[in-house]
Amino acid sequence: MLSKILCTVWLFVLFLCPAFTQAAELTALEPLITRSTRLIVFSPHPDDETLGAGGLIQRVLEAGGRVKVVFMTNGDGYPEGVELQDHTTHPTALDFTRYGQIRRLEALSALTTLGMKTKNVIFLGFPDGGLPSLRSKSWAHHVPYRSPFTRKCRPPWFETVIPRADFCAKDLTDEIERVIVRFKPTLLATTGPEDQHPDHKFTYYFVEQALDRLTMKSAYLRPEVITFVIHYNGWPVNQEARSGARLPPPEGFPVRGRKWISFDLKPWEVSVKRKAILKYRSQMVMLSRFLLCFDKSDELFRQDPGHGAALGCLQLSKQSANAK
Question: Where are the beta strands (DSSP E) in the chain?
Fold first, then answer.
C-alpha cells in the first residue's frame, strides 16, 4: 500500500512538477567514466564519432569500460566526394555504393586506431542525406524511402539489426532501440538537435524517440545522454587552427539551460585522435582543414536535459519503498 502511495506521489511530481524532475546538471564527465561504464556513440556518418568523441572513446576504454559505436549511414550520399574519388562527373548508383564501402572501411580503421574492436562497431546502413525524409514522410513499410544516390530502399542484408528492415522511420527507430537494449549503455553520446547538418539533427531525434519508447517499457534502461556538435555556422574552422589548442564553444549557439562540458584530453589521446582522423582519407581530400580543426586538447559536450530525470525519480521512488 505504501509503495503504491509513493509511486503516485512521484508520478505526480514527474508529470505535474517538471521543475523537480530535472536531472542534476553535469559539470564534468570524468566521474562517469569507470570500469563499469558502457558508452554507446551514435554517429550520423563515418568520421563524426572520431571528430566529436574520439578522446572520450579512448578514455572509457582506458578505464576498462566498454564502447559501442553505431553508424546511422555509411556516408554514401556525397556527390562531390564520389566525383573526386572516381574521377567522374556523372557517378552511378554503384559508384555511390562503393564510396560508402570505402567510408565504412575507413571507419573501422579509425576506430581500431582509437582502441576499439571491430565487433563493437555497427553499421545500420540507412540513407545518407535521407534521415529527415524518413522522419517526415516514410514512417512505415508501405512508403519506404529510396536513396537518390544508391537507389536502394533498404539497408544491406548484412547490416540489418531487425529482419527485413526498410528505409523507413519505424524500422530505424526499432533498430536503434534493439541496439540499446542489447548493449544496455550507461552513457550515450550523439550529435545534438542544434547541429545544422540535417542528418546530424535527425540522428538525435531518432535516438531520442527510441529512448522515449524504451523508458515507457523499462524505467531502468536510461543512460546519461550527452551531445556534441560538428556543424554550426562555419565553426570550428574560424577558430584557432593550431593542433592542441582548446576548442571554444560555437558563437551564438542556442542555450537550453545546460552549460558546455569541456572534456580535457591527455597528450597521447590527442595524438591518437589525430591519427584516427587521418584514417578518413576520402574525407581528408575534400575537408582536411575542417576535420583537423577537431584536433584539439579537449572535446565539447552538452548534457541533454530531456533524459535522465524520469529515471532518477522512479529509482528514488523504489528506494524509498524498499527502505520502508
Answer: 38-43, 66-73, 121-126, 187-191, 224-228, 260-264, 298-303
Total Cβ atoms within 10 A of residue 25: 11
Domain count across the chain:
1
Residue 42 lies in domain: 38-308
pLDDT above 70 covers a percentage of the chain that reads 83
Q: Does 314 fall in a domain?
A: no
Task: Tell me the average pLDDT across 108-116.
Answer: 98
Please check whether residue 302 is in contact with residue 250, taking contact to mean a CB–CB distance below 8 angstroms.
no
State the DSSP string of 213-263: HHHHH-TT---EEEEE-S-BTTBTTTS--STT---PPPTTPPP-S--EEEE
Reported confidence tier of residue 307, pLDDT bands at 50, 70, 90:
low
Residue 23 inside a domain? The answer is no
Tell me which residue has cell 548508383: 93
Q: What is the pTM of this model?
A: 0.87
In a domain, residue 320? The reply is no
Supply 36's cell numbers: 563499469
281: domain CATH number is 3.40.50.10320
